[in-house]
Amino acid sequence: MTMDARNYEFNTAKADFYLCLANALTAPMAKPHAHAILGGDLTSDLADLDREIGYGLASQIEALQRELDRIGDDEDLLVLYAQLFLSPPRKVQLNAASYLDGSFNGGTVTELEQCYAENGVSRADSFHDLADHVSVQLEFISHLYRVAATGADTGSSISAGSFISRYPQRWISPLVEDIRRVGGELELAANPYLALMQILDAALENDAELRDGPLSATERREHALAMARQKRAERKVSAEEMEDIRKRLEAHGLSSAHLDPTSKDDPFGGWQAMVPPSPKR
Fold first, then answer.
1. For residue 105, which of 218, 246, 5, 223 has the smallest C-alpha distance?
2. C-alpha dihedral over 157, 56, 279, 204, to 10 degrees?
3. Would you report the helix, strand and coil content of the chain in percent, each value rounded to 5?
4. Count of CB atoms situated within 10 Å of the CB of 264
5. For residue 4, which phi and psi values (nearest 5 degrees)?
6. pTM of the predicted structure, to 2 decimals
7. 153 with 115: CB under 8 angstroms?
8. How many angstroms separate the CA atoms of 90 and 82, rounded?
9. What span, in angstroms and rounded, lies between the C-alpha atoms of 191 and 42?
10. In this predicted model, what pLDDT tens digit does every residue of 75-84 receive, in sequence order?
11. Residue 60 and residue 66: Cα distance in Å, rounded?
12. Rounded Cα–Cα distance for residues 273 and 268 (Å)
């Protein structure tokens, strides 16, 4: 096998791995989506890709399946997802700018929108969430690995590793801790999303671009805001604040359906709607 062929297969496998995670972290509104997660397709795909890539995550993927085995059916999975990520006040934020900026829809959202645009990824009309949603960022990583697999000069301004270092590697730890903490507070019988995030954490650590030298001004600012972010994450969101969030979303032409846990509308079409990534598996 030639070096180009190995490069293509390796990077394509990483693209598929991150796309699997992106899909798994969207709301399981549709029955086929939930069935794929609960029926073993998710962990089977992750295990196959893990062996191909060499992350060494077999035990973590088995732990994920054990947690999924404790979920009764697709409705139970949706209820669990809503408990963690949707029901007001949201207990865990999948809009990662809340960890990076200390606020909803902060400057990181604009940065990410610009980054996507510079790399040929645009918002589809059916897209109903902000650019900082965890699944969108993972789908963008998938896109960058797919670009790397081709070896073509697409004018891409960032690599997957540098994007991971700049964004996901900075929000993954507080997000994992929030899911762990809230799972304990809710006394969840199963918490597959914690296991899923731990798998993501390990992959991000493996794939992040190593850096040397002092922290940038932005990174120093983020460090100074760490305590404020933690306090904000622990604070309850009032009904007035929730209504303000709803109005801000709708003012930007974005759906606020995900603020209502009883809504049957798909609150997030990110991994399917983003252009040009598409799943291989």
1. 246
2. -30
3. 65, 0, 35
4. 10
5. -60, -40
6. 0.75
7. no
8. 9
9. 15
10. 999 999 999 9
11. 10
12. 9
